[in-house]
Amino acid sequence: MSVPDGVLDQAIGWLVRIESSGATPEVLAACQRWRQADALHETAWQALQKIDAPFQSLAALPGSVALDTLERLNSGQRSRRQALKLLGMGLLASGVTGWSLRDSTLVPWGADYATGVGERRQFLLADGTRLQLNTASTVDVQFSAQRRLITLRRGEIFIDTGKDSAAPGGRRSFWVSSRHAQLQAIGTAFAVRDEPHGTRLRVEEGVVAIHGKGEPIQVAAGEQYLIDASGSHRVEASPLNASAWTRGQLVAKRMRLHDLTAELARYRHGWLHCDPAVAQLEVSGVFQLDDIDRALSALGDSLPVRIERFTPLWTRVLAR
């Protein structure tokens, strides 16, 4: 039975609520009602339990790590060939190897705020702004009488702008600068990520203006843009939730295993290699960022892959 994207979104949403709320009786009861409302709902929900099943029951969901969503379900048969068919993925004869070397955790000299690999931190700035840094991130903060400026030097941040009520002369403008973008926040909450070839912007609340060539682009809540040397490009759909990391989660929707392992690798030291033979397998679900090795082990229990650890700093995801 095929699971539509809308139902998959709802199932992931319920899972995030359960894990974020500590699986309160009220949330569990509401989720149960949703599951019983439609057979497709239950199909999607059971698929999301596949990775977590070897570890715990629904009542213990707050400690879950990785939940795999299958596009098609079948009972009984578990051969590698059938598992690949169920996942709806083809194998590629060649592909990107997916090596990932983590950056040094050393804080660059002069950085105002920084995190190491696997670390996430939150800061309250003088103007009331809430600044969150994701793994291996560094920023500078410069407030003047005219404006507030945050410079993203590396990594990823989430900003919930403060009211700046104590500023003389009224509220100052708020800017975020990166290698590829100049962003002006207009009373908003948003995520900014520095990537090798561009800056990724996701607006959660309010409006953010992208300044570049020509007129500024107004980005509204729910929209995502990638800004690079050629301009600003709206991202219509992304397999990765841009702000879930602020809750300690990685939320993926039909994400290639190669891309998923690359994302998980950002939160751990060493190399994490995904075999091209399984790189195109798709995974949807919620991963907890505080235990990446356990998340990898869970993938090995539910997908036609095996996890090979040569040393604590060298891990490979291979076809079985």
Task: State the helicity in percent bands.
Answer: 10-25%
Point out poorly predicted stretches: 51-107
**Oligomeric state of the chains in view:** single chain
- Topology, number of strands: 17
Instruction: Specify the overall morphology.
Output: globular
How much strand?
25-35%
Q: Mind telling me the C-alpha Rg?
A: 21 Å
Sketch the topology as an H/E string, one letter per element: HHHHEEEEEEEEEEEEEHEEHEE
Mean pLDDT: 79
Main pleated-sheet profile: 12 strands, mixed
**Which secondary-structure class do the elements indicate?**
alpha+beta
Distance between the termini: 26 Å
Supply the number of helical segments: 6
Can you describe this structure?
Helices cover 21% and strands 33% of the residues. With 320 residues, the chain is an alpha+beta fold. The strands form 3 sheets. Strands 1, 2, 3, 4, 5, 6, 7, 8, 9, 10, 11 and 12 form a 12-stranded mixed β-sheet that branches. A 3-stranded mixed β-sheet has the order 14-17-16, covered by helices on one side. Strands 13-15 form a two-stranded antiparallel ribbon. Strand 7 (173-177) and strand 8 (182-195) form a beta hairpin. Helix 1 (5-21) crosses helix 3 (39-48) and helix 2 (25-37) packs across helix 3. The longest helix is centred in the first third of the chain and has 17 residues, at 5-21. It is globular. The two termini are 26 Å apart.
Walk me through the topology.
Layout: H1 5-21, H2 25-37, H3 39-48, H4 80-87, E1 113-114, E2 121-124, E3 130-133, E4 138-143, E5 147-154, E6 156-160, E7 173-177, E8 182-195, E9 198-211, E10 217-220, E11 224-228, E12 231-234, E13 249-256, H5 257-265, E14 271-274, E15 282-288, H6 292-302, E16 305-311, E17 314-319
Parallel strand pairs: 5-7, 14-17
Antiparallel strand pairs: 1-4, 2-3, 3-6, 4-5, 6-8, 7-8, 8-9, 9-10, 9-11, 11-12, 13-15, 16-17
